[in-house]
Amino acid sequence: MRKVGRTYTSNSFPPVTLRSPYIIHNEEIVSNLYNMGFQSGNYADTILHVHQNSYRLHALILSRSPYLVHLMSTSPQTGGQRVIYVDLEREPEVTQEGFAIALGYLYSSVSLSLLRPDNARGALAAACLLGGMEYLCEYAYDACRQSIRLETIHGWLDFAGTIPIESTASSELSTLSIFGRYAQRLRDDVLQYLIVTLPSILELHAPSTSQRASQAPVQSGRDTLLDIFSRVPFDIFKTAIESPAFQIGTDQARFKFAKDAIDLRKRGIARGTGAEETVVLAFGGGNTGGSAVHVTRKLRKRPLWKYTLNTQRPYWEALFISANDDPRDHIAVMANASPVDGMGPRCYVFHTPNNHMQTRTTVTQMRGQTEAGLEVATLDWLLTRFLGTANIRGRTVLMADLADRHGTASDAHRSFTGTSPDGSPLRCTWVGLHDGSYQLWSSDNYLADFRPTNEHTDFGTSRGTMRYWFKDEQLFLEAIITLNINRWMDMNEL
Question: Is residue 272 located within the same domain as residue 321?
Fold first, then answer.
C-alpha cells in the first residue's frame, strides 16, 4: 500500500484504539437516563415541587441524594406517584438554575457542562443541600473560586461578610451554613484575592521606578482599592488592613490608606455599620512579627428609640385567648370598649386546621355575641410551618414582608408596612425582647406592646395582653397578624 509521504506495509498500519464495549454500553445507559428520564420525565414515579417548578423524576435515581431520600421516606404516597416538596425559602443561595443542575447530575455528569461562573454558587449550594455529589461540589467550588475578579468582588465580599470567622464559626450560626466546609474555603479565597491578588493586579505592592516618576497609575489603582475597602463589612476590613500579607508599600502608606478608607466609611458608604461605627487606628506590634497597623471599632452609645412612654396616655387592651398558646389558633379579644363605634368588645378568631403540606390560617372578625363572622384575612403557610403568602382584606402580600428584617438593627427587629388612619403607608417595627414581650414602633412613636401572661379571664385563659395607643381598626388587624407571625417565627426558630 502506497501513501503520500510515507509507505506502510501490511504490518505497519497505525494502531487503532478500540473503546471498551462496557464503557460504550454504560455511556448509552446514562445518556438514555438523562434524556428520557430527567429531561423528558418518561416513566416517572415521583413528582418533585421546588420554587415554581415541577419535575417528573424517578425514586431510584433520587435515592442517590440523602436529602431526597429523607423527603421520600417522610412524604406519604397517596396515589400511583409520590409527591415531594422541597422548601427553599430559608436557602436563598440555592437558585432555580443551580438546583436544576444538581438534580440533573443525579442522572448524568453531563450537568457539569452547564456550569458557568454566574451559576456556580447556586449549583454548589444545591449540591451541598442534596448531598452525595462530592465531585459536583468540587467542580462548582473551583468555578466559584475562578469567578472572583475585580468585576465581581463586591458581590463576593457581601457573601464573605455573612460567614463567621473560623475561630467563632462553631459558636455562631451562619446564614450560609448550607455550604458546609466550602463556606470557609470561599471566604478564605475572597480574602486572599482582596489582600494579596487585588493589590498586585492594581500594582500597589511596590511601585516601580517608572511609576514613582509618574504616580497616575498608582493613584488610580489606590482609588479603586479605596472604593472597595470603603464598602466591605467591618470584620473583613479589619482582617485585611491588619494582615501582614496586605502589602501596599510601607507601614506609613498602609496607615494612610486605612485612614482614608475610614474617612469614606464614616460618610456612610460602609455597609451595615454607617454612622454608628467608630474606627480608631494605632501603631504597634510591627517589631514582633505582627501588624504595625491596628483597627478597632466602638459603637456609639445611643438609645435605639428616642421616645419616653407617657403612661398617662389612654390605651386599649386586647387579650389573646388560647388553650395551648398557639399564635395560629387563638382569639384576640378587644377587652375594653371599642374606640371606633362603641359596640363593645369584639374579637378576631385565628383558626388553623392541620392539612398535609399546606396550612391555611383564617382570621375572622366577630362582633359581640354575633355567631356569623366576617373573614378578613388568610395566611397560607408552606409545608405546614414556613412563611408563605397572606391576604389581608383583599391585599395579597408575602408573609416574609410582614416580618421583614432588611434594614433593621437586629434579627429581633421585624418590620412591616401598615396602614395609617388616613390610608397612607405606615412603616412599623415589632421589637422582640428576651422575656417574650414585644414592642411596636413607628419611627419614634410607641404604638403598642405585648407581654405574655397565663391568666384566667371571663373569655378564657389569656396567653398574652396587647396594649395599643391608636384607634384605627385596620392597623389593629395588621398589628395582631404581624405579631402572631413574629411569635410563630420565634417559637419555631425560623
Answer: no
**452 found inside a domain:** yes
Q: What is the pLDDT of residue 215?
A: 52
Range of the domain at 99: 21-147
Q: Which three cell numbers stand for residue 228?
A: 472597595
Top pLDDT among 259 and 411 is at 259
In a domain, 12, yes or no: no
Cβ partners under 8 Å of residue 9, min gap 6: 1
Question: What is this structure's pTM?
Answer: 0.56
**Amino acid letter, 389:** T
C-alpha to C-alpha distances, 451 to 271, 305, 413, 457, nearest whole angstrom: 34, 19, 16, 16
Q: What are phi and psi of 292, to 5 degrees?
A: -90, -5
Number of folded domains that form the chain: 3
**In the predicted model, what is the mean pLDDT of residues 96-120?**
94
Which stretch of DSSP H or E encloses residue 386?
A: strand 386-392
User: Is residue 1 in some structural domain?
Assistant: no
* Of the listed ranges 1-15, 27-41, 53-67, 252-266, the one predicted with least confidence: 1-15
Query: Alpha-carbon distance 27 to 20, whole Å?
Result: 11
Average of pLDDT values for 210-221? 58
Nearest to 389 by CA among 481, 475, 327, 326: 481
Query: Considering all CA atoms of the chain, what is the largest pairwise distance in Å, rounded to the nearest integer?
Result: 112
The H-assigned helical ranges of 92-233 are 96-107, 120-130, 134-146, 153-161, 181-192, 198-201, 209-213, 216-229
Long-range Cβ contact pairs of 161-164 (< 8 A, separation 24 or more): 161/232, 161/233, 161/235, 161/236, 161/271, 161/272, 163/187
Q: pLDDT, tens digit, for every residue of 361-371?
A: 999 988 754 55
Q: Kindly report, residue by residue over 291-304, the tens digit of the pLDDT.
A: 678 888 765 544 43
Q: Residue 148: how many CB atoms within 10 A of its CB?
A: 23
Same domain, 271 and 394: no
Query: Is 76 domain-assigned?
Result: yes
Query: CA angle 476-479-481, nearest 5°?
Result: 110
Do 142 and 237 fall into the same domain? no
CB neighbours (10 Å) of residue 473? Answer: 17
8-state DSSP, 404? B
For the chain, what percent of residues have pLDDT higher than 90? Answer: 33
Residues 429 and 379 in one domain: yes
pLDDT tens per residue across span 466-482: 999 888 889 999 999 99
Average pLDDT, the chain: 80
Q: Where are the alpha helices (DSSP H) in 207-270?
A: 209-213, 216-229, 234-242, 251-264
